[in-house]
Design brief:
By secondary structure, the chain is of the alpha/beta class. It has 4 domains: 4-175, Rossmann fold (3-Layer(aba) Sandwich); 181-239, Orthogonal Bundle (Helicase, Ruva Protein, domain 3); 247-363, Zinc Finger, Delta Prime, domain 3, CATH 1.20.272.10; 417-565, GMP Synthetase, Chain A, domain 3 (2-Layer Sandwich). It is 50% helix and 9% strand. The chain has helices spanning 4-7, 20-31, 49-61, 77-84, 101-112, 134-145, 165-168, 181-195, 201-211, 215-226, 235-239, 247-259, 262-274, 279-298, 303-306, 312-324, 327-343, 352-363, 393-401, 405-413, 419-424, 426-436, 438-445, 464-470, 473-487, 510-513, 543-551, 556-565, and strands at residues 38-42, 90-94, 122-127, 151-157, 172-175, 198-199, 232-233, 448-453, 456-461, 492-497. Strands 2-3-4-1-5 form a 5-stranded parallel beta sheet, sandwiched between helices. Strand 3 (122-127), helix 6 (134-145) and strand 4 form a beta-alpha-beta unit. Helix 13 (262-274) runs antiparallel to helix 18, helix 14 packs across helix 16 (312-324) and helix 22 (426-436) runs antiparallel to helix 23 (438-445).
């Protein structure tokens, strides 16, 4: 069987995977007949430098290329010669084995002076150009600056910093990027369809992750999997070839840290070591994973640019973790594992620093250290007088949390609100919910408020676990209380799942993106909103004091204690 990366090497611009920023520029130059005399392609291995150089050479020499077009026909004599590697006018040189000045004079300078035999342009494709000696670069310099007519130089390198600035300044430079997991999966899916082999998308994502952005590596690894045999390859068979992935175990470790299950987390680390995984690499993968979670928590739009790519299935797992963890917990995890990583080399038990870090993270009190000084509660200028209500507080809260059907219908009949009003004030809902439950505000930020009918708001979510989260009784009570506070009417929520929702760069749906968050308000209405824990018989802290505590780092300890144990601030 032919080597996959050679068999499926792109032969035109449409087949080139990714690198759109380079394809657009070069195709416009070809269509406008404005090609340069020298190009410099730099970037990692296996991302398409030589491939694009060959496609460029084929395009400029295609006999049937029409004016204003850039795609080579692939059928004329010149295209077939270049595709088969028989063209005398397309000269590929490996600079790693021709480093001396004499080789440059004989193979490049002298050959460039000879007119092309058949093709319109004579094209020199020089791989690993950084391997040339200084004298060879100096000899090439003048020819590169003023080459003979109809000669094009394409220099390819993986280490552009080793090339003299005088060479770089005489070329059009293009920097190639690593290929994303999603783009690699598309190309691998195309290959297995052509090969008539069934492989699950999970296996293809695993292959793409292990290639680390190098398309040629991914195709080589896929070729090894296909060599196992059979028309359908299972995950167990693929695992025989695919190098072990530590990302899944890193996700499991993060879940255990979130649950504060120190025993299971330490057991997981020791199991990974027993299976032969390098501990430093595993910790590095775990820190990189937690970093991605942190970036998503801070700004979801940065995750694709700065975060680790893991494929669709694992991205779903990460999103579940993001919805649960608080930013402070994430920072604690990164700091603890980072310190432990630096101590691995000096520890006589390699995993001991990691185990200590796990124990510290899991034993920390969520509400803050009890020994920390508790600041006095803020003074209220006009405290509300205590009213002796004959109705027990627990009974009144129970009636508010579980209204009878008659009361619901009466309240719904008095509702007079439309979807435009809901969307206009949705940013206020997010701000108020964030005061009581930070992760809940993240879920609501990626939902889409839709129509309002008889006092019920339809909220559409892209993922099922977001819909299940918002449908929990205590969460519904919290959200509906905030809705009443913002809109001044009794509103109830219905949650649905719509996988066709498209989110914008900030992680919010198009509906929400129209309403930017306002600056932090000076004061909040005094209407009480049920807290996340929903403990009956406990009066919630007012919105003003809750907002002040959330804004002031010094008040985090008392704020978390109040939320955890359902306390209240009294004068």
């Amino acid at each position: 069987m032919a080597i996959l990366y050679r068999k499926y090497r792109p032969g035109n611009w449409e087949e080139v995977v990714n690198q759109n920023h380079i394809k657009i520029t070069l195709t416009q130059e070809i269509a406008g007949n404005k090609t340069a005399h020298a190009y410099l392609f730099s970037g990692p291995r296996g991302v398409g430098k030589t491939t694009i150089a060959r496609v460029l050479a084929k395009s400029v020499n295609c006999e049937k290329l029409q004016s204003g077009k850039y795609e080579p026909c692939g059928k004329c004599a010149r295209c077939e010669e270049i595709l088969a590697g028989r063209s005398l006018d397309i000269i590929e040189i490996d600079a790693a084995s021709h480093t001396g000045v004499d080789n440059v004079r004989e193979n490049i300078i002298a050959a460039a002076r000879v007119a092309s035999s058949r093709a319109k342009y004579k094209v020199f494709i020089i791989d690993e150009i950084h391997m040339l000696s200084i004298s060879a670069f100096n000899a090439l310099l003048k020819t590169l600056e003023e080459p003979p007519q109809n000669v094009i130089f394409i220099l390819c390198t993986t280490e552009v910093h080793k090339i003299p600035a005088t060479i770089i300044s005489r070329c059009e430079r293009f920097d190639f990027k690593r290929i994303s997991v999603s783009d690699q999966v598309k190309k691998l899916s195309y290959i297995i369809r052509k090969e008539n082999i069934k492989i699950s998308k999970e296996i293809l994502e695993s292959v793409a992750r292990h290639s680390e952005g190098h398309m040629r590596d991914a195709e080589s690894l896929l070729g090894q999997i296909i060599a196992i045999g059979g028309k359908e390859i299972s995950l167990e068979e693929a695992d025989l070839v695919i190098p072990r992935s530590d990302i899944k175990e890193a996700i499991n470790l993060l879940k255990l840290l979130q649950k504060k299950d120190a025993g299971a987390a330490i057991e997981l680390v020791n199991k990974v070591i027993d299976e032969g995984v390098d501990l430093r690499r595993f910790v590095d993968d775990s820190i990189e994973l937690i970093r991605k979670v942190m970036i998503i928590k801070i700004n979801p739009s940065l995750a694709d640019k700065l975060g680790l790519e893991m494929g669709e299935s694992m991205e779903m797992e990460v999103n579940k973790i993001v919805a649960i963890l608080e930013l402070k917990q994430i920072l604690d995890f990164i700091e603890a594992l980072g310190e432990a990583r630096n101590k691995i080399n000096t520890s006589f038990i390699s995993q001991l620093p990691i185990e200590i870090a796990i124990a510290k993270v899991c034993s920390s009190v969520r509400a803050g250290s009890p020994a920390s000084p508790v600041p006095p509660p803020p003074l209220v200028s006009n405290p509300a007088p205590l009213v002796n209500n004959s109705t027990p507080p627990m009974a009144s809260q129970a009636r508010a949390a579980n209204p009878t059907p008659t009361s619901i219908s009466n309240q719904s009949s008095n509702v007079n609100i439309d979807s435009e009003t809901i969307i206009a004030k949705w940013h206020e809902v997010l701000a108020k919910v964030k005061q009581h439950n930070h992760s809940l505000s993240f879920i609501l930020r990626v939902c889409e408020p839709r129509d309002v009918n008889a006092g019920r708001i339809c909220l559409a979510f892209k993922y099922k676990f977001h819909k299940e989260r918002i449908s929990e009784n205590k969460i519904k009570i919290l959200v509906e209380g905030v809705l009443k506070d913002v809109y001044g009417q009794n509103l109830f929520i219905d949650a649905i799942v719509d996988e066709n929702i498209k989110t914008n760069g900030n992680g919010a749906s198009k509906t929400q993106a129209a309403a930017p968050l306002p600056p932090k308000p000076v004061s909040q209405p005094s209407t009480p909103v049920p807290q996340q824990d929903g403990q009956a018989g406990k009066q919630d802290v007012s919105a003003d004091s809750s907002y002040a505590k959330a804004a002031d780092d010094k008040n985090n300890a008392i704020d978390n204690l109040l939320k955890t144990f359902g306390g209240k601030v009294v004068k």
